[in-house]
Design a protein that fits this description.
Blueprint lengths: L2 E3 L8 E10 L6 E12 L3 E5 L2 E6 L4 E7 L5 E6 L5 E13 L6 E12 L4 E3 L2 H9 L5 H18 L2 H15 L2
């Protein structure tokens, strides 16, 4: 199983990163928020959306990972060095743990990005489909990823939900 930690510690491109974890006791939906600030990076995280390259992670950028109390996905918001929201990512894993010192997910199945322009991009949908066809991904995991992706797009692909995530994230960043 491949783990992805909220502090990006498995990411070899991020050289220096500050990290904080906050329990979200007053929030009915999110249990934990983890804020990261990239102080030095070897290689930027760039996503191509409709033919346009968009930088999501670079030196000076910030990210907040929100772990829901229920559900099998995390929400990650990305801010540039001017604290402008670059986009919101949703990662659907096989499993996740947020009640540890550093929260993590195991075996990411599917990533969805909703940009500031409301574009929806499925980053690794081909890998999910190919893994399923090659029997590397179980039917229950495949179905879970597809069902969860539908719920995410239906709920979050609107300005009010993205703005709510932005507000929660900025609060976690202390801005």
């Amino acid at each position: 199983m491949k783990k992805k930690f909220a502090d990006f510690s498995e990411n070899k491109d991020i050289m220096i990163n500050s990290f904080s974890k906050r329990e979200m006791d007053q929030d009915a939906f999110f249990a934990v928020a983890c804020a990261s600030s990239v102080e030095k990076i070897n290689e930027r995280k760039i996503v191509s959306i409709n033919g346009e390259d968009k930088t999501f992670l670079d030196t000076g950028y910030k990210s907040v990972a929100l772990y829901p109390r229920e559900g099998n996905f995390i929400v990650r918001s990305y801010f540039n060095n001017n604290s402008e929201l670059m986009g919101v990512g949703f990662e659907i894993p096989k499993s996740m743990k947020y009640n540890t010192k550093i929260p993590y997910i195991e075996d990411s199945l599917l990533e969805i990005v909703i940009t500031d322009k409301k574009d929806v991009v499925f980053l690794n949908e081909n890998e999910l489909n190919e893994g399923f066809k090659a029997n590397k991904i179980k039917t229950k995991d495949y179905d879970l990823a597809k069902r969860t992706a539908d719920k995410i797009v239906n709920k979050y692909n609107n300005p009010e939900q993205i703005e709510a995530i932005r507000q929660i994230s900025l609060k976690c960043l202390g801005e």
